[in-house]
From TrEMBL, chain A:
This is Amino acid ABC transporter, permease protein. One of its GO terms (cellular component) is ATP-binding cassette (ABC) transporter complex. It comes from Streptomyces formicae. GO terms for molecular function: transmembrane transporter activity. It holds the Pfam family BPD_transp_1. PANTHER family: L-CYSTINE TRANSPORT SYSTEM PERMEASE PROTEIN TCYL, MEMBRANE COMPONENT OF AMINO ACID ABC TRANSPORTER. PROSITE patterns: ABC_TM1 (PS50928). Its main location: membrane. InterPro entries: AA_ABC_transptr_permease_3TM, ArtM/GltK/GlnP/TcyL/YhdX-like, Ectoine_EhuC, MetI-like, MetI-like_sf. Belongs to the binding-protein-dependent transport system permease family. The chain crosses the membrane at residues 15-39, 51-72, 78-99, 149-171, 183-204.
Automatic annotation (TrEMBL), chain B:
It comes from the Bacteria. It is a multi-pass membrane protein. InterPro entries: AA_ABC_transptr_permease_3TM, ArtM/GltK/GlnP/TcyL/YhdX-like, Ectoine_EhuD, MetI-like, MetI-like_sf. SUPFAM superfamilies: MetI-like. This is Putative amino acid ABC transporter integral membrane protein. The keyword Transmembrane applies. It is found in: Cell membrane. GO terms for biological process: amino acid transport. GO terms for molecular function: transmembrane transporter activity. It comes from Streptomyces formicae. GO terms for cellular component: ATP-binding cassette (ABC) transporter complex. Its main location: membrane. The lineage of its organism: Bacteria, Bacillati, Actinomycetota, Actinomycetes, Kitasatosporales.
């Protein structure tokens, strides 16, 4: 069985690193998604094209291959070095940022055009329109697909174990090697990921209710477990379903 | 910047082996995901609680946990109780099982999209439950969701490199092996480009298909 010494030395720090990687790469994805998503609704075709190319490229690559590329190819070719964790967060953030930009674009496109016209009539600058009119209305639309994406990202963080970041999957792998024990550790890992996903889903639900109330929509009631995720993240990612 | 094209040339034969394995995994993984997903979707509409509940819990659990950990579980834990599988077989089972829970959602949407009148008509004709599903509901449900299912083939392709972690020599596994043996790093770029070359045209094709089928 798992000893407490292993737990304190390896597993708990691994759990903490998983949390860190999730939060950091989610933050990076978020920071990337908004400008790219907004630029994809630009009226200049070249801006639209470049922002769209970013989405298409990262939608078409495997995030694991991209992570390996950043971790193992970039340092020798460009003569730089960085921590594996940096490579992992960068790869996840860039990949999921591309997916999230599609959600932002979709939600902005769903704001009725009359709202934009009203902003123009009020002599708002484009930035004011975005901040005061379009984003506040698009935001509640984005939260459910963001929620799905966050779960996918959480699961995606397990990949960083393969570039030697000591997350909880890595800790599990280590125990298998050191103590030659696999059943309890992988079962525990699966359970932990499930619990984390559940907590994230619940948190995002609260956020959604709050956002809907703020713009005067009535949030729908949901049971505790029912329809934990009605649509899967990747639908949003590939443009079917997800944000309209 | 130091880059050596000769390593790219040397890697190519291994790369094609990797492509073969990736495509094999994708083909059989897709078959499992598509058929098992349909089973999940139909079971979730069962009137019997003891069928509906376990299926919901199991699919929700599989969907909320990482494919990578599931692959480790299948590869290291399952042999303790039962059959041990080769890395490729594990990869196929893992991909198929994981994505069956996603395709079941797609089927579910398709089934819910069949107008209620169709169910009523089947009842009026006093068709058996089995005939209602096979002759009335599923033919209409599945046609609508073909493009959405196609998306999952692309997603499975992109996630398939995780098999390399349990030693399956897919595209990434071959690149890793080559890089480690020769202390070079060019091979991974070849694999990265390969994914764009395969996945991007495939997703464009799907969008065209979708426009044709769904209207």
């Amino acid at each position: 069985m798992m000893s407490s010494e292993f737990f304190g030395n390896w597993f708990l720090p691994g759990v903490w690193i998983t949390v860190q990687v999730t939060l950091l790469s989610a933050a990076l994805a978020f920071v990337i998604a908004f400008p790219i998503g907004v630029l994809r609704t630009s009226r200049l075709w070249i801006v639209r094209f470049l922002a769209g190319a970013y989405f298409e490229i990262f939608r078409s690559t495997s995030s694991l291959v991209f992570m390996f590329w950043i971790a193992f190819t970039v340092p020798p070719v460009f003569n730089i070095s960085f921590q594996p964790m940096f490579a992992g967060v960068l790869a996840l953030g860039i990949t999921y940022g591309a997916y999230a930009s599609e959600i932002v674009r979709g939600a902005l496109a769903a704001v009725p055009p009359a709202q934009r016209e009203a902003g123009i009539a009020l002599n708002f600058t484009p930035l004011q329109r975005l901040r005061r009119i379009e984003l506040p209305q698009a935001w509640p639309e984005m939260i459910p697909p963001f929620n799905n994406l966050l779960i996918e990202l959480l699961k995606g963080t397990s990949l960083v174990s393969l570039i030697a970041v000591g997350d909880m999957t890595f800790a599990g792998d280590l125990l298998r090697l050191v103590k030659n024990e696999s059943a309890p550790i992988y079962t525990l890992l699966l359970a932990l990921y499930f619990v984390f996903a559940f907590i994230l889903t619940r948190g995002m639900r609260l956020l959604e209710r709050h956002a809907k109330k703020r713009i005067g929509q009535t949030p729908e009631k949901t049971s505790l477990f029912g329809g934990m995720r009605s649509k899967s993240a990747i639908d949003a990612v590939t443009g079917t379903g997800g944000a309209k | 910047m130091n880059w050596n094209w000769s390593h790219v040339d040397d890697f190519m034969p291994l790369f094609w082996d990797g492509v073969e394995l990736t495509l094999k995994a994708l083909l059989f993984g897709t078959l499992i995901a598509f058929s098992l997903g349909l089973v999940w979707a139909v079971a979730q509409r069962s009137e019997k609680k003891w069928i509906r509940w376990p299926v919901t819990v199991v699919t929700e659990f599989i969907r909320s946990t990482p494919l990578l950990v599931q692959l480790f579980f299948l590869f290291y834990v399952v042999p303790e109780w039962g059959p041990s599988m080769s890395p490729l077989t594990t990869g196929i089972v893992g991909l198929g099982l994981h994505y069956s829970t996603y395709t079941s959602e797609v089927y579910r949407a398709g089934i819910e999209g069949v107008p209620a009148g169709q169910w009523e008509a089947a009842t009026a004709l006093s068709l058996s439950k089995r005939r209602t599903w096979t002759a009335v509901i599923l033919p209409q449900a599945v046609r609508r969701v073909i493009p959405a299912l196609g998306n999952y083939v692309i997603i499975m392709l992109k996630e398939s490199p995780q098999m390399a972690a349990i030693g399956a020599l897919d595209m990434l596994g071959q690149a890793q092996g080559y890089s480690q043996a020769t202390f070079t790093y060019e091979a991974i770029s070849v694999v990265g480009v390969a994914f764009i070359v395969i996945a991007y045209p495939a997703s464009v094709l799907l969008r065209v298909l979708e426009r044709r089928l769904v209207r």
